[in-house]
Structure to design on (669 residues):
């Protein structure tokens, strides 16, 4: 299954080659959850504050579907 | 020595120091500016006439030693943009110096009959009324520079040409630690209220002033430690955390990902160029343009002394010299995505123009976007948009229309898509995609204002809980709680951004209240924050009712109820009865 992954702000250090605005195009096994994907990418669990799937709030236990767009978000807020 | 109210009568150019009346004794910051407005300003007066006033107040803890990120100054009065009560606050140097002079508030009232402009110079010895003819017609970069030649290291509060012209989108500038005009009480046209008093600038030198008394030093220190620790521990605000690394524009990509970034005058919720105007892009430019020696670009900049977050930045040009400080989320969005512009340098240059001419970046970006919608320019035309600020500076008919804000611009250009509530335009969160913030826009006494009740924290950021942004459920209660807590924090003098760590870390919430209790001697705990905040909101709400506001003023723009917003294809669905519940307690007592 193909998945498109976006990392924002401080989490981008886990994929240093990724340019601003670029996404990772990955292949994952059926049944992979967002938490599995987080671990495969080496994202520190305590730093992942919010996950989004296809522009909607998601749960770490959600299974990823083919063609999904997943975003990992650290602590963010502001004005 | 107890604090004083400094009343400055501009009709007679006379200043008097008064004891703080008992009814205001417990208030500071926003609570005090709103109380002054409520008690002394006739709600039906013309905002630019002789009966409006400009109240200026530092917060409870502003000016105390080592209280973190607490340099805010509140500016209040009746807004020429909304016709209702307004409090707009800013960082920079002014709050600590006003507090250092032992002042609870400054009240500017009256109007000079000779029409001449004045610079007020405040020191421990009193107030001097200086002829400001040499500053009239000048932008805030030059005003700050000229005033520091005579009064170095002072706080400078001032207005640009927009304030002189009394335009409804004129803001009030406060200089930052490097004497740049970038810290703005931008919203609601308070620069026009200052201009209508004939005051071009206020210089504040607190040398030798009495400073701020602390009633219970032990309690104050206890609270200060808890609050400081919570800011230093939270991933967002700690050293190397999100805000100091990327600034507030850290939000651009995430709000865009959530489909809530208003684009091309609120016609879409995602902008294809979002990444190019994001906090990540700003940090990259700051790093890439680094020069050997004399480099002025930076992230992690502090807008006022004693800030321990440092969310500000200095955006550099190709030669490494600063274009503007600061380039933040609202600005990057308003002058970027909302105008279809994805060039950061263009956005930075427009932001500099806003700071110079003295207009709010949010209202300005929205006014340009509405004008683009009406055919003045094409969306994405950064060069054309930049030139519009010179129209405002020169006071041309077009410039004056744009400087009156979004509603005037929409009428001039025949546009029905008008993203305003109570005459003030919306900031950078699409209410159709993030419903709670829409409730705040609709119901806050301030007109559409995200800072008035920042439900984005739980709706998007997972701070202070987690709720679905697209759901209508529970959003009225959520917004009210945030509005009340915000009214309290806006009165403390702390930067609103302390809210993020203290919503997640309980000792920080308690610590904030303890610092206020320690300074004032009032008996306040964390449990008192929301009830006290509601007391402030009630004054503001009642002022607006006196000014003629009815429940129909608490409504979202009509187009949001029938135009579907991509990518979620949603409309505004929260019912009017739900909106009316938010302030139902003001009269029914519950």
């Amino acid at each position: 299954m193909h998945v498109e992954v976006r990392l924002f702000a401080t989490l981008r250090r886990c994929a240093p080659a990724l340019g601003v605005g670029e996404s990772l195009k990955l292949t994952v096994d059926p049944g992979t959850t967002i938490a599995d994907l987080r671990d495969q990418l080496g994202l520190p669990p305590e730093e992942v504050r919010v996950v989004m799937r296809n522009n909607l709030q998601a749960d770490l236990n959600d299974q990823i579907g083919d063609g999904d767009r997943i975003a990992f978000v650290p602590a963010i807020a502001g004005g | 020595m107890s604090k004083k109210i400094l009343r400055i009568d501009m009709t007679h150019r006379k200043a008097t120091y008064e004891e703080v009346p008992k009814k205001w004794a417990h208030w500071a910051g926003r609570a005090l500016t709103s109380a002054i407005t409520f008690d002394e300003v006739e709600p039906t007066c013309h905002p630019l006439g002789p009966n409006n006033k400009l109240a200026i107040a530092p917060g409870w803890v502003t000016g105390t030693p080592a209280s973190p990120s607490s340099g805010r100054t509140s500016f209040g009065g009746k807004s020429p943009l909304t016709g209702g009560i307004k409090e707009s606050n800013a960082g920079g140097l002014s709050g600590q110096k006003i507090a250092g002079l032992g002042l609870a508030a400054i009240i500017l009232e009256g109007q000079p009959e000779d029409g001449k402009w004045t610079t007020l110079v405040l020191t421990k010895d009193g107030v001097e009324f200086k002829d400001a003819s040499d500053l009239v017609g000048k932008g805030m970069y030059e005003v700050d520079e000229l005033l520091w030649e005579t009064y170095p290291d002072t706080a400078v509060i001032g207005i640009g040409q927009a304030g002189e012209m009394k335009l409804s989108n004129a803001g009030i500038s406060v200089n930052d630690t490097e004497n740049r005009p970038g810290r703005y009480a931008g919203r609601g046209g308070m620069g026009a209220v200052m201009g209508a008093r004939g005051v071009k600038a206020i210089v504040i030198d607190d040398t030798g002033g009495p400073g701020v008394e602390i009633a219970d030093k032990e309690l104050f220190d206890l609270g200060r430690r808890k609050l400081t620790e919570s800011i230093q521990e939270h991933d967002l605000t700690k050293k190397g955390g999100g805000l100091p690394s990327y600034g507030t524009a850290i939000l651009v990509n995430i709000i865009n990902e959530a489909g809530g970034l208003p684009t091309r005058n609120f016609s879409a919720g995602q902008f294809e160029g979002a990444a190019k105007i994001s906090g990540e892009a700003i940090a990259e430019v700051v790093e890439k343009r680094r020069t050997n020696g004399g480099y002025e670009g930076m992230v992690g900049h502090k807008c006022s002394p004693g800030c321990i977050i440092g969310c500000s930045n200095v955006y550099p040009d190709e030669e490494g010299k600063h274009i503007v400080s600061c380039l933040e989320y609202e600005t990057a969005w308003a002058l970027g995505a909302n105008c279809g512009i994805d060039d950061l340098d263009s956005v930075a240059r427009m932001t500099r123009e806003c700071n110079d001419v003295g207009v709010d970046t949010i209202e300005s970006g929205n006014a340009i976007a509405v004008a683009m919608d009406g055919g003045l320019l094409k969306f994405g035309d950064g060069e054309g948009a930049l030139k519009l600020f010179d129209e405002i500076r020169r006071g041309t008919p077009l410039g004056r229309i744009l400087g009156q804000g979004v509603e005037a611009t929409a009428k001039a250009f025949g546009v029905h898509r008008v993203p305003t509530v109570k005459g003030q335009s919306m900031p950078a969160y699409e209410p159709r995609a993030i419903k709670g913030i829409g409730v705040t826009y609709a119901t806050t006494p301030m007109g559409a204002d995200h800072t008035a009740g920042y439900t984005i924290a739980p709706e998007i950021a997972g701070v202070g809980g987690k709720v679905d942004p697209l759901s209508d459920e529970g959003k009225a209660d959520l917004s009210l709680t945030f509005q009340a807590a915000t009214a309290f924090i806006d009165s403390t003098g702390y930067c609103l951004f302390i809210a993020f760590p203290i919503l997640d870390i309980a000792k920080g919430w308690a610590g904030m209240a303890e610092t206020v209790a320690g300074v004032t001697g009032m008996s306040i705990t964390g449990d008192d924050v929301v009830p006290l905040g509601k007391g402030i909101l009630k004054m503001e709400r009642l002022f607006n009712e006196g000014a003629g506001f009815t429940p129909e003023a608490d409504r979202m723009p009509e187009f949001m109820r029938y135009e579907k917003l991509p990518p979620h294809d949603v409309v505004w669905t929260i019912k009017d009865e739900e909106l009316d519940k938010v302030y139902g307690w003001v009269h029914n007592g519950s």
Summary: The domain at 249-430 of chain B is CATH 1.10.569.10 (Aldehyde Ferredoxin Oxidoreductase Protein, subunit A; domain 2). The mean pLDDT of chain B is 97. The longest strand of chain B covers residues 103-109.
